Amino acid sequence: MLKTAYPGQQQVPKIVKVEPMLKRLHISRLLMLIGAGLWFLSIAGDFIGSLVDKNSHFPGSFLPFYGIFFFVYLVFMLFYFTRIVKFWERLERRRQMAAGGDQKLLAPEQPRPDANTLPLPTVLGQSSPVTSDFSQPMTFVQRPNWKIFLVIFGVVFLTIIIFAVVFIIFSPTLFPPLPHHRALPSVFVFIAAAVFLVLMLLYCGILFGVMYFKARQQLTVTETGLIMLGFRKVHSVSWQEAKLFAIDGIFGARRYPHPSIFELSSANAIVRWSWLRRSNLRVLFIAQPILSEEDYNRQMQSLLSLIAARTGLPLYDLRDKPRP
Question: What residues pair up with 13 in beta bridges, in sequence order?
Answer without folding.
Answer: 3
